[in-house]
From TrEMBL:
This is Capsule biosynthesis protein. It comes from Sphingobium psychrophilum. GO terms for molecular function: protein tyrosine kinase activity. The chain crosses the membrane at residues 31-50, 358-383. InterPro entries: Bact_polysacc_biosynth/exp. Keywords: Membrane, Transmembrane, Transmembrane helix.
Amino acid sequence: MNANTSFPAEAETDVPVAHNGFAQWVKNRRWFLLFVVAPTLLAALYYGLIASDIYISESRFVIKSPDQKRSQVSTLANLVQTTGLSGGQEQTNEVLTYVRSRDALKALEKDVAVRDKFSTSQGDFLSRFPQFLGDNSFESLFKYYGKMVDARMDTETGTAIIKVKAFAPQDAYIINRQLLELSEALVNRLNGRAHDKAIIEGQKQVELATQRVKTSRIALAQYRNSQALIDPGKQATSVLEIANTMIGERAALQAQLDLMQRLTPANPSIPALRNRINAVTVQIASQDSRVVGTGNGIASKLGGYENLLVEQEFATASLNSSNAALVQARAEAQRQQFYLERVVDPNTPDTPLLPKRLLNVLIVFAAATCLYFIAWMFLIGILEHAPED
């Protein structure tokens, strides 16, 4: 009987002992449980039951120009390039900067309603936009956009990469596809600006040279009309040729007169011959005066004519040079055109790549453990160096 009645008493005493032992164990490890175990459990709860699946769509592209020498390094970018084309590093950086910019986000808001895709109910309250304790402003959206869109250069392959995260595979694909289209449009705009700048400057020079030619021709025509001359040089040459012919004729007549005076001094033809010689002499003097000797002579007008003629020749040469430069500028602009070549088109992901649930829980546990032991060692050091009372 005594044995039978002793068991309940022992059981009654064991429960408080066990309860007190567990409470003491918890009390002794309360800081570890609070700063390590609790965050790990919360992380496991969030990533295991709450965190939404995140899909990633990836695309790759290169910027190529037909006038650049191909790199000798064997990379994926070189393999996908066609003959005579090579990558434009500077233009690729400009495109990637644009993809990460507010302008790209504004275009996405207009074209594909990116705000609604990031705010979908498929995302959990900590992952979707607006984020926990955040607002719905554009600046907040831009910060969130920077987390969901990654645009960078892959130095190993020489290709540019665009990665888009979304809570639905189709949303990730649509945003990535639109970013590629916006990038192609940007490259085309940059080409248009460079092309227009070169062509407009060349056309401006051609217009100036054309106006100069017109002005010089009008001035030359006005001078010809005012001076009653077509080509002073040719006209002076013609006058001099006539004068030279008359001089030869006068010399022949003079020789005939001299012969006649020696042989037949009384010849009645001598006076007529003298008159002819005098008439020819007058004509020679008249022709000479047309060229030189007066203010209205051809020689006095030749200087102004030649100045205008030289101006016209220079203007014509300048026009030819400007036209050649315009043709060269067009060819150069064509050679400097850049093209966005898609290496990998955006994919529609069929499996969520994020979040990495187990890895994230382990990271939380490891980080919390490291911080706990750092704080513990720091506290121990303080206690060891504290003065004893």
